[in-house]
Amino acid sequence: MAISTRQLLALQVRVIGALVLRETRATFGSSQIGYLWAIITPAASVAVLVTIFSLVGRSPPFGNSFALFFATGVLTLEYFNKLSNGLIGAMDANKALLTYPVIKVTDTLFARTILITATYILIMLLFFGGLVLFGLAQAPAFPDKVIEAVLVTGFLGFGFGTVNAVILSQWESWRHIEKILTRPLMFISGVFYVPSLLPPEAQAVLWWNPILHLVEWFRMGYYPNYDSRIFDAWYPLGIAIGLTLLGLGGERLTRKKRT
Amino acid sequence: MIELVDVCKGYTQKGVRKNLIEDLNFTFPDDRNVAIMGHNGAGKSTLMRMLAGTEPPDSGRIYRSTRVSWPLGFSGGFNGTMTGIENVRFLARIYGADTEEVLDFVRDFAEIGPSIRLPVRTYSSGMKARLAFGVSMAIDFDTYLIDEITAVGDENFRIKSKKVFTEKLKRSNIVMISHSVNEIRNYCNCGLFLTRQGIRFYEDVEALIEDYRRTLREGF
């Protein structure tokens, strides 16, 4: 073929860049306020929950800020959920785009992942920045670990979302089943508690939830002295790699059936 | 150049298998304009989508070494909630063209006035078609795929379109589906005829038209 790898790479970057801009416009509307809302909504919902818990008088399970403890858990989980929910419909929503041969299905998945990741990084910066500013938290103790945790969360969300999108393209009911399956994540991911303090039987079961490891990862990076007896970095990373391969492979195999 | 090697394509719907294209081997020449003719349901549009790359063949391979357009003549790829400007910019971006240059050309060519700043869903089908045609003319392709380009707009616009299109044809070539013998005669100098018995290539477009007319009279 007459096309070099460099040209292909440039094409890929161009297409994904254009799709990210388009998705931004489609998701947040034409006004700048739209994007502002996308950032304010999750931040505000966390703030409301934090306020309620503080009013009830619960003491934080770890450290001395309930807001910080809760945010480290819930923002990690929300980021994962957003990716999973956002990608599941990406193939359907962008069917019309496939009129243009330069755009492949996977490009729409990559573009959404980039947009959601950028949004959540901004949300986290604002939220944790706000906490630090108001004296409710310290800056993260090991920023590199926090970044690792966010990256692996994004990776796992991409893999899970891609697998979901492939299943959905073959089986319409999957959208509802996926919702039911991911609902309990809020309770089994260590958002409200320190997993290492649970009875060993509970720990043994919760260990299988990769999101729990990511929440632990994030907290170990944020707190100077958060010690996890459950955490294993290779587990969520392995699942992320497995799901991504499964998702992309599945996309390739079902490509002919979808069109 | 677009080269098809052992291409097969068919659809299975409700358990009924329908083979449209069987073992097609064909190379679309770089310097000629190819007509695709055939009765309704013969697989013309399917063949075109495969040439564009929007649909994969069931088996076989398709090699493309030139910039091939999307199948022109319909505006299904526009996003209704996005404005005309946003849609145009998006297309310019994915094809690596200068967004403002393309926009200037389309603004000038499509003549839809301030509507270009409104969401595409508010457009009439004529306006959409003008916009779509304008964009495809603003971006340089080596091969234009044209699926039933029915005349868009008023007399004035048609004359203008034809002028721009003829200008394009000096540097690009086309693959065109049409039922209109006049269009085929105007633009094409060879052609493929899709029949139930298989696909035939005609070096001479007049021979193609003659066979096409005969099958129309005698039934397929």
Automatic annotation (TrEMBL), chain A:
One of its GO terms (biological process) is lipopolysaccharide transport. It is found in: Cell membrane. Its main location: membrane. It comes from the Bacteria. One of its GO terms (cellular component) is ATP-binding cassette (ABC) transporter complex. The keyword Glycoprotein does not apply. One of its GO terms (molecular function) is ABC-type transporter activity. Keywords: Cell membrane, Membrane, Polysaccharide transport, Sugar transport, Transmembrane, Transmembrane helix, Transport. The keyword Transmembrane helix applies. Residues 16-222 form the ABC-2 type transporter transmembrane domain. The chain crosses the membrane at residues 35-56, 62-81, 114-137, 149-168, 180-198, 233-250. It is a multi-pass membrane protein. Belongs to the ABC-2 integral membrane protein family. This is ABC transporter permease.
UniProtKB/TrEMBL annotation, chain B:
Transmembrane segments: none annotated. GO terms for molecular function: ABC-type transporter activity; ATP binding; ATP hydrolysis activity. Residues 2-220 form the ABC transporter domain. Keywords: ATP-binding, Nucleotide-binding, Transport. One of its GO terms (cellular component) is membrane. It comes from the Bacteria. Pfam families: ABC_tran (PF00005). The keyword Disulfide bond does not apply. Belongs to the ABC transporter superfamily. This is ATP-binding cassette domain-containing protein. It comes from Pseudooceanicola albus.
